[in-house]
Amino acid sequence: MAAARVPLWAVCVLRVALATVYFQEEFLDGERWRNRWVPSTNDSQFGHFRLSSGNFYGHKEKDKGLQTTQNSRFYAISARFKPFSNKGKTLVVQYTVKHEQKMDCGGGYIKLFPADTDQKNLNGKSQYYIMFGPDICGFDIKTVHVILHFKNQYHANKKSIRCKVDSFTHLYTLILRPDLTYDVKIDGQSIESGSIEYDWQLTSLKNMEKASAEAEGWDQAAKDKSQDWEKHFLDASASKPSDWKGELDGDWQAAMLQKPPYQDGLKPEGIDKDVWLHQKMKNNYLTEYDLSEFENIGAIGLELWQVRSGTIFDNFLITDDEEYAENFGKATWGETKGPEKEMDAIQAKEEVKKAQEEDEDDMLMGRFSGRENSFKGFHGRNEL
C-alpha cells in the first residue's frame, strides 16, 4: 500500500512550528512601534527615527521601517526580547536596509546586545555580541561588517565582503552554525562563507591562551604522549624472561618490532614543545571554546553614524532556522522588490519629462522676452 502524500502546506506549517523565532519586526501596526523600540538618551544630539516607506516603495504599508531623519548625526535605538543562548544551535540574523538617499558616508548595520544592556544609555561604547551589515564611506569603504565578540575582544572577518551601494532595498542575512561554519547572504544569495575559526583570525588568539595553560604540564604530557605512542609498536607476543628480576633489572618492557614512525610529522621522542602544543590544540580546542556562542542575547539595535540621512531599516528577524529565514525574506522583501523598482523607474521618467517641459517653458519665455524687447526697441525708434 502506497504511503499517503503529505500536502505542501502541511510541510510548511510543520517547518514553522519547528523554528524558534526570537525576534521579528515588520512595523505593521503604525506608531505602536514606539512601545517596543527605545531611543537612547545618552546624547541630546542623537538623530531621530520615524516610520516611513520612503519616496518610492513596493508597498506603502509593508515597506515602512525605521528611517533616519537628520544629517550628520549619530543614532542609537534598540528593542528588547526574551533572552536566549544560541549554544549548540544555528543563529540567523536578517533584516532589510534601503539607502534611499544614495549613501555617501554612514552605517547601515545592526548590533545584537546582551540582555542587560542599558537601552536608555545605548552608545558607541556599549558592549555588543555581533555587528552585521553594510558600511559605506567615500570610494574606499563599501563593506559588509561581520564582527564577533570573543574573549573580551571584537574580531572582524578578515575577508573583504562588498555591500550594495544603490538606493534600493536589500536583504542581508548572517548565519552562524554550531559546527563553526558561517554564511553571509545578500538578497538571498551567498556572497561569503567559510570557517568562523579561521576567517576571524581566532587561531592566533586561541594559541596564545592555550599555550600558556599547557606550558606548566609540558614535561609530563610529552613523556606520556611518547610512551603511549610507543606501545603500538611493542612485541605483544613477547613474555618476560623467567630469570628477570625487577629489583635488579628494573621494569621489564617488550622489545619494539620496529622504530616508531612519525605521527602526523611528529616524532614520539624529542617532540618539539611548540609543535606538539599546536597539534594538541588543533584536536581539542574547538570542544573547549565557543567561538560563536552567546549566552545572553536579549536586544537588537541600531547604533551608527550617518552624514546624509534617509536610510530605512525593516523586516528584522532572529531565528534558529535557516529555511524559516529564507521564507520570511521571500514573503517580505521578495514580494516588494519588483514593484519598488517599477515605481522608481516611473518616477525617474516623470522627472525627466518634467525637466524637459521646464526647459521648453524656459525657451518659450526666452523667445517671448526677446520679441518683447525687440518691440520696445522698435517703438522707441518710432518715437524719435
From TrEMBL:
SUPFAM superfamilies, A to Z: Concanavalin A-like lectins/glucanases, P-domain of calnexin/calreticulin
> Could you tell me what this protein is called?
Calreticulin
Matching PANTHER family, A to Z? Answer: CALRETICULIN AND CALNEXIN (PTHR11073), CALRETICULIN-3 (PTHR11073:SF3)
Recorded superkingdom: Eukaryota
Q: Is-annotated flag, keyword Glycoprotein?
A: yes
The subunit field of the Swiss-Prot or TrEMBL record says: Component of an EIF2 complex at least composed of CELF1/CUGBP1, CALR, CALR3, EIF2S1, EIF2S2, HSP90B1 and HSPA5.
| Keywords, comma-separated and alphabetical | Chaperone, Differentiation, Disulfide bond, Endoplasmic reticulum, Glycoprotein, Repeat, Signal, Spermatogenesis
Main localization, broad class: endoplasmic reticulum
Respond yes or no to whether keyword Chaperone is given for this record.
Answer: yes
User: Which Gene3D superfamilies does UniProt cross-reference here?
Assistant: 2.60.120.200, Calreticulin/calnexin, P domain, Helix hairpin bin
Compositionally biased residues, Basic and acidic residues: 369-384
- In residue numbers, the region (Disordered) covers 352-384
Disulfide connectivity for this sequence is: 105-137
| Annotated InterPro entries | Calret/calnex (IPR001580), Calret/calnex_CS (IPR018124), Calreticulin (IPR009169), Calreticulin/calnexin_P_dom_sf (IPR009033), ConA-like_dom_sf (IPR013320)
Q: Which family does it belong to?
A: Belongs to the calreticulin family.
Q: Which GO terms describe its biological process?
A: cell differentiation; ERAD pathway; protein folding; spermatogenesis
Residues annotated to bind an alpha-D-glucoside: 109, 111, 128, 135, 303
Q: Name one GO molecular function term.
A: unfolded protein binding
